[in-house]
Design goal:
221 residues, elongated, Arc Repressor Mutant, subunit A
Length: 221
Amino acid sequence: MNYLDLRLRFAPEVRHPIHQFIDASEAVDRDVLVHGNTLGDEDTFLFYVVGDREPYAAALAAADSVVDFEITGIDDRSFYTFLRQRRPDVDEATFAAFQRTGVIVIPPIKFLPDGVATLTVVGESDALQETLESLPTAVDVTVERVGDYDWRQSLFDPSLTDRQREAVQAAVDAGYYTVPREGSVEAVADTLDCSTSTAAEHLRKAEQAVVTAFCGLRQYD
């Protein structure tokens, strides 16, 4: 079972009004589709948003495709948006590409400036390839990452290389991270069959990636 991390870029002429708002305004720091239902004639979506509530609500109210919405505050800078919309043509074609046997879209879907949306899809190789080939021409797709899917990775994924993972595991096994420290970089180097300086570099890069990923998670608080 494979997964693809995809980066979709919608052409300016087909971007959703809210995506256009994100591009043009500094009021939104984060816009994430947490869950959605695209059955029937209308879509129902739940978004997590970090930003200024009033400009975002005004943009929703001005969007012709948005039928109704409700905003629930979390704190001064974050809120949930529950909305119903009439499906734009480009969304109809995009959703159709993913709604096929052998493919699952894994939430969340992040909406970024410049018309970009990032998402993960899981499925059979042939079905995933058919999905990519079926996307409308107004949507430019980039495969950013591919591999064997592991749900546990989605809980916390600092995107370590295989060698960095080996180094961290060797360090844990050696007691390098215990307090007081029981293992050494030399023990990690012995396990990896590399020089001490190389082992230390693997650990530094892995630690940087882990801490950076953890701080990224804190943005959801």
